[in-house]
Amino acid sequence: MKLNANALALATASAVAVVWVVCSILVALSPGMSMNMTGYMVHTDFGAMQWNMNLGGFVAGLFMWSIFAGVTAWLIAALYNKLS
């Protein structure tokens, strides 16, 4: 079975964009809880740190993470198709 690399890349980029927006909303609504949760996920104490959120950072992160995820998914599908 071959994977459609372009479709997988677009689906992955779209899914990551949705996750980025939801995550950003959670950080905006509850920055303390979000900082604690992030610290737990990477085994670090971020208690003395704070979020620095602005529209430019939100848009840049949305764009960069979505592109990176889409390119990664495309590469995975392309390699899978070559190896299968």
Seen as an oligomer or otherwise, the chain set is single chain
* Helix and strand pattern: HHH
Cα-based radius of gyration, to the nearest Å: 16 Å
The main sheet comes to: none
Q: How big a fraction of the residues is strand?
A: under 5%
Give the helix level as a range of percent. over 70%
Helical region count?
Answer: 3
Distance between the termini: 8 Å
Rough shape? Answer: elongated
Count of β-strands: 0
Mean pLDDT: 95
List keywords for this structure.
77% helix; mainly alpha; 84 residues
In brief, what are we looking at here?
The chain is mainly α and 84 residues long. The chain is built from three helices and no strands.
What does this structure look like?
It contains 3 helices and no strands. The protein has 84 residues and is mainly α. The longest helix has 29 residues, at 55-83.
List the helices and strands and how they pair.
Layout (H helix, E strand, L loop, with lengths): L4 H25 L1 H11 L13 H29 L1
Helix pairs in contact: 1-2, 1-3
